């Protein structure tokens, strides 16, 4: 599995397939039992943690519940890999830019602990973006968002990949969102990758039956595969 600059790679699969574990391996939180993770051709296990943090940002599925900071300060913490002794004007400007991009400037002075689940998720993504990573890892970023905000967030992610050359790896349950916004999809089952390719190559009725154990129809909608689940196989 590999991901290039300006590319969105979605990881899909049923619960327990290993999507989160794979992201945690990439971020060096856990070590793979076999093989290695390369970042620009270098083994992440041999890189300094601060160096990895300058190039790679990980947003877990669940935001912390006890985080006694304002939203602005919470996002500012994402600049830590770049800060030497004190916060600079550049750091402040970057935080303002990112919270505006994610449309959360109205939350800037709110306490993080007072936010809804969806608002917290956006703040955690903002904190990752101010790291200015080359690779962004997202674990179920839409899990606490309604339909409109899911689409808005995926549009932002697509724009980041296109305009800033960021490589994005996202673990996601919604096959139709994956099909719409991904350049490539990896599908997992039982801790193994069982398919990889374009959305059209991966999201077939046969592969969905094999991996999820359901019958589905795959239609063409606006040039993208669209999955309609019909029942248990």
TrEMBL record:
GO terms for molecular function: ABC-type vitamin B12 transporter activity; ATP binding; ATP hydrolysis activity. SMART domains: AAA. Its EC number is 7.6.2.8. Keywords: ATP-binding, Nucleotide-binding, Translocase, Transport. It catalyses: an R-cob(III)alamin(out) + ATP + H2O = an R-cob(III)alamin(in) + ADP + phosphate + H(+). The keyword Nucleotide-binding applies. It comes from the Archaea. Residues 1-215 form the ABC transporter domain. Required for corrinoid utilization. Probably part of the ABC transporter complex BtuCDF involved in cobalamin (vitamin B12) import. Probably responsible for energy coupling to the transport system. This is Cobalamin import ATP-binding protein BtuD.
